[in-house]
């Protein structure tokens, strides 16, 4: 099923579909090796042209397994992104947050809203993810969300230009629903 992405609201954030106007803040945040070096599919350096090309490649209506959200914080504008893509075993969630916004619980807040929306919009029983072995902060976010570690693999990190050890994780619909009840006020769609 293909649909327009909704806008989601949490106590501190707004999650909405990416817009052309997001190019400059996306490029600013991703042209930081501390961010790009923790992501698989982001090159470094990351230029404004890269952000514009990525935004131009995204149709307005996408199935849940390909939907992404720009994360906006009041007073700051765009601070990150959370989105879904089709993976080998099923849907995968990926996310990033600009370095000035780390350590505030914003990614957990954004991911809870996005995952609640995803499980409501799709029939997927499992959501996959993972982190590079050195990304302990992101692994902590996944543990808070209810993801379980399922193994290790190697994944290409474009920014590093190398295969990097990856901790594979998965989150079942049942586990998420137990941890984050379905009537999440923080995941209300606008």
Notable characteristics:
190 residues; alpha+beta; Aminopeptidase; 6-stranded antiparallel sheet; 3-stranded antiparallel sheet; 11 strands; disordered C terminus
The CATH homologous superfamily is termed Gcn5-related N-acetyltransferase (GNAT)
CATH fold-level label: Aminopeptidase
User: Average pLDDT value?
Assistant: 93
The fraction of residues assigned to DSSP E strands is: 25-35%
If you compute it from the alpha carbons, what radius of gyration comes out, rounded to the nearest whole angstrom? 15 Å
Q: What is the CATH class?
A: Alpha Beta
N-C termini distance: 20 Å
From the coordinates shown, what is the CATH architecture? 3-Layer(aba) Sandwich
Global geometry = globular
What class, by secondary structure content?
A: alpha+beta
- Order of secondary-structure elements: EEEHHHEEEEHEHEEHE
Query: What's the domain count?
Result: 1
> How are strands sequenced across the largest beta sheet?
7-6-5-3-2-11
Q: In total, how many beta strands?
A: 11
Low-confidence stretches: 183-190
